[in-house]
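REQUEST FORM: STRUCTURE PREDICTION
Request ID: SP-0412
Submitted by: Lab K.M.
Chain count: 1
Length (residues): 259
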Amino acid sequence: MPRDLFGRRTADETPLTASPDAKTPGFGSFAEQMQASRGNTAKDDLHPYVSTLGLADLDSCVALENATFPEHERCSEEKFVYRLTKCPELCLGLFSTSDAHGPASAEPTFSPARPPDSFNPSKRGVLIGHVIATQSSETQVTDESMELPPDWQTGISSIETRGHRDGGRTIAIHSVAVLPAYQNRGLGKTIVRSHTQRMETSGIGDRIALLAHDPLVSFYEKAGFENKGKSDVKFGGGGWNDMIYEFSEHAPGMQLATY
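STATUS: Completed
RESULT:
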């Protein structure tokens, strides 16, 4: 579940840099927008970039989730396998390139990290944030949409309502996480904006839905989400708010609120 993403707007707000993976779709234009919006007022040692996640990132995602959430709110490894297999195109990672002496080398996601390209084998693309999502036929996140279909590896019934639903017009976010050491640096804002833009321009859905506890409602409202009130979801003990971002209510390329 989304957690601890408060992002103070300061002079050292972290910009995105060009991804070492030249195959990352649609990245450059977003990076340029981020650079323009902050005016290049400061330099940061992270040089973060975004890239679609896959099964090769499984161990990093699990390590990030475990470092960020209390146990009762974590996505299980089995659910990560399911989501990164069924709909990796909906899952986005925020990475920082680091070697064994770099700023990310002490993080739990450094060990499972892989080299970002073949030209720098001594460096690793370290996962410092992620957004994990599926498609849903409902207009908000439900307990069923977060469940794991028991027969997903052998074929899902056409009447199955649990988990990812191909063709569903709601992008249901199940996890937004940033490593604790990198929170309050604007990285939560960066990855949420990037994911929102990618989903909107892809045409794959009509909206994004997620759950947030009260302290994070204003964060997502500033990112363009509308608070629809208390959710019926019981996962993690309940107490969530339904947050919805309707693509029809936002013009393509629309600048989000400064925060």
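NOTES: The longest strand covers residues 124-136.
Reviewed by: T.R.
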